[in-house]
Structure formats: structure tokens, C-alpha cells
Protein: Nucleotidyltransferase domain-containing protein
Amino acid sequence: MERWETAAADFLLAWTSRNDVIGAMLCGSYITGNPSHRSDLDIHLILSEDAEGRERGNLVRGGLMIEYFLNPPKQIRAYFRQDFEAESTMSMVQFATGRIVYDPTGVTQALKAEAKQWLSKERDELSGAELELAKYAVWDDMDNVLDSFEQRRPDYPFVCQQALMRLFQTYSRYLKLGKTPHHHVLAYLKDPRYLAKYLAPAFPDEEFARKMVKLIQDHDTYRQVQEYEQLARYVLDQMGGFEPNGWHLRTPLDL
Structure:
């Protein structure tokens, strides 16, 4: 038995003897593969449906950090819905890839199946107004990055990196993809193992992915700003084009 398995078993011993705990699942890199020395072990404990609260916390067992979550099934289902609406896949991926270790009622297996259903659910396209605002935001970010570079401002690297992340997220949303955490973007775009680990679809625009990877890894400031502008203009073209001169958007009041 590996160290993390021993730590998990030690942690679960007290919880699975409680009458209000009806399921347990191990999640994270120790289950999906390639954990680092900083990886923690996520443990989801399923409470009975009549639970009146939820809990999360951290504990060290056997030198390993355990992050645990206590929720009734109705709360977990709410997380699935909320994450989908927020364009995230975090809760669904954890349950879809997790290892069930305690499930006397079958509820944990049911939640695992529901998580996979949520992951396969297609997202809506951007509406007309949403699309126009998204394109304006891409152009506005590009203008700010170029201005920061031309003025040789000391915050240019920060401004550029923030704009690049928003560009990636905006284009992902246009392509009906969920959000990718900033520290996962490079692995998502270039490492096939990431797709299997997080049940993620391959990025559908290979040209964008190639240019994005190059830009992330290029630390030459002059090349970087050129590559960023080219990538931003490429995204605007893919989204239907954008002309700032005369642009306007009329929508109903939001009161």
C-alpha cells in the first residue's frame, strides 16, 4: 500500500463509521496520475440527504495534506449545476474521475454518473449582444497592451499576461468550451495526458493552440507583443471580425 493510500485509509476510518456518512470518494492527482510533491489528496464524503450543513477542511495524515469535503447529495448536484453555469468543470471532473471507496447506498455511483452527464452537456453559443461585447473586450485589451508596450510601462508584462489569459478564455467561450484554470492552460494545449486526466476535449482550433503555446513560452518582449497582437486579431477574425470605428450596441435596459 502506498503512503497516500495509507493516509486515506487512516482518515476514512472514523468517518465511514458514522451513520450520517453514506459515501466516500478519493479524487485528484493521486487517482488520475502524475502527482507532484505538492499534490494533496481530495476526499469527498457524502452526507445523508437530511444534513443541515456542509464542511470542508485540511488535515495532514502521514505527511500528506488531505483536503476533505462533506456535502449531502443535493448540495453536490447544486455544485454541478453552478459550475456548468459558471463555465467550470471542476466538481464534475472530480466526481467523474474519482475512485469510490465507500458506497453502501449507491448514491456515490449515481453522482459519478451524473457528473459525466454534465460534462457531456453542450454549452450555448454566445448571443448577439454577448458576442459583440466579447469582441469589443478583445479589441480593448489589445489596445491597452499595445499602449502599455509603446509607453515602456513597467507593468507591461503583467498587462500582457492578463490580457492573454482573457483572450484565451474569451475564445474558449466562443468555441463553447469550459474555463481552464490559468495554471493548466499550457498543459491543456500541448500535453495529451492532460486531456485524459481531466476528461477535457482537445482544443478545436489547432492554429490558435500552436500560436498560444509559442506566445506563452516566448519571453522576448518585442516578439511577444507582436505575437499577441497577431493572435488577438486572429481571434477577432474567427469571431466574425471587428471594426472599432462606428461600433455601437443597443440593448434593453437592465433594471
Observations:
- DSSP finds eleven helices and five strands in the chain.
- The radius of gyration is 22 Å.
- Residues 41 and 66 are 5 Å apart (CA to CA).
- The domain at 128-238 is CATH 1.20.120 (Four Helix Bundle (Hemerythrin (Met), subunit A)).
